[in-house]
Amino acid sequence: MKLGAYMIWAAVAVAAGAIVLLGYFTNLDVIIGLRLVWLVLLRWAILLAAGGLGIGLVNLASVHLAKVSEQEPGWPYSGVLIVFFTFTLALGLFFGPDSPWTLFVFRFIHLPLESSLMALLAVALVVAGVRLAGRRRDLLSLVFVLTAILILLGTGPWLIGSESVTHERILWVRNWVVQVAAAGGARGILLGVAIGGIVTGLRVLVAADRPYGN
Amino acid sequence: MFDLRGLLILAIFLATLLAYAAYGRRRTTVFRKLRGFEELGRSIERAVEAGERVHLSLGTGSVIGSDSGPALAGLAVLSRMAMATSMSDKPSVITAGDGAMMVLSQDSLRTGYQQVGESTRFQLTAGRMLGPTPFSYVAGLPAVLGGEDVTVHVMIGSFGAEAALAADFGERKGIFVLAGTDDVQAQALLYAIASYPLIGEEVFAGGAYLNAGPLHHASLSTQDLVRFLIVAAILVGTLMRTFGVGL
User: What is the ipTM of this complex?
Assistant: First the structure.
């Protein structure tokens, strides 16, 4: 029984994956009906993703409600989340996502909070750079820290000596590092990531990996 | 009408993968040492013995986007992780920034427990969506890491710059942090912050290093072969251009 169910899920996933993938390499109009199937599958995927978001929000609310009711460590934060979750949801449902009230929440609460976290990132990176020098004392880390300092020196203006020969030389080295060494390295890494992504996708396509479970 | 070159490359990829999988059954594949994955096994064992929790972050990418690849690799790690932590007092926690990815993580976790005959240990709230945007996801992480006795913090998924904060929360707690993503800039951030960063394609290697199956081993061999061929093609192309030979 279990074997049968697993085979059905796998067959559906493999067939859907193969048809969608084929759509990127062929003009599906030549195979009658396949274009329609392709479009339907893509629309279903978008619908399922939206449904997934709904399930995710229910999950988010239930996890935090459980934390509040059982008074687990940090439950006041969960309480705040539940209150604002309900408030934002009600705003969106009653006034619509484009209403001035909803936009006010996004523009003056949500956006500044996310920007603040982004700003925190700069502080975290400086601290991490200092920690890295002490924690991982190898050649690669040294090169990493020195390159970061070089790029910083060559990117912004200096308090004094921005017109000096030293600044110009650092700027030249910085440009070479960014345009040649870093760009080459990044392309190499991207190549590895792309190949890894393709192989991971193929594993799902041949049902070796079944993230949809058994 | 047909992109024959694309189809051919894909067919070669698939054939190589299956050939390596078949060949791999007859010989042992030897991998280079990756400190992160070696230490991960030991850290999970310690966490299970100490009754502490393991956390896997699948990132902020969506299932239907092009950024789903690393998270799918993370799900392969998850099934092994679920099996390894099935005896723990505290089950693993998996977080994602996408609802559909959360559903997949719950399915993978359930399957992992089923495979070791511990289906009853599965809890639906073990797979969670923390927030639908990258920074709302990260804002929810400290509560998971700080409030649930997490001592192993694994990040395998699609992250942007928010990965740095996600890893930093773990580092500040002094717990084991293994982190990898497909974004090059985020990888640089993780290199500076995480104790065990995964660079480049290493983010896809978790399944092979944790023995998730012969196709995972074959994947790494295929990746190596294809990369070698691409490097050779680039070198030959460069030499031909240098010497004025037309393609």
Answer: 0.90
Assess contact for A191 and B232: CB atoms under 8 A. no
For the stretch A65-93, pLDDT in tens is 999 999 988 899 999 999 999 999 999 99
Handedness of CA B141, B145, B150, B151 (dihedral sign): positive
Determine the pLDDT at residue B199.
93
pLDDT (0 to 100) of residue B67: 83
The pLDDT value given to residue A1: 47
Contact B17/B204 with Cβ under 8 angstroms?
Answer: no
pLDDT band at A3 (very low <50, low <70, confident <90, very high): low
The answer for residues whose C-beta is within 8 angstroms of residue B5's C-beta and 6 or more apart is none
**By CA distance, what is A55's nearest residue in B?**
B99
A77, A135, A214 member nearest B143 (Cβ): A77
Gap from A167 CA to chain B (nearest CA, Å) = 25
Domain boundaries, chain A: 1-93, 96-135, 138-214
Find the helix or strand (DSSP H, E) in which B218 lies.
Answer: helix B214-242
- Does A52 contact B192 at a Cβ distance shorter than 8 Å? no
In terms of phi and psi (left: phi > 0; alpha: psi -120 to 50; beta: otherwise), the region of B149 is left
- What are the residues whose beta carbons fall under 8 Å from the beta carbon of B105, sequence distance 6 or more? B56, B58, B75, B78, B94, B96, B127
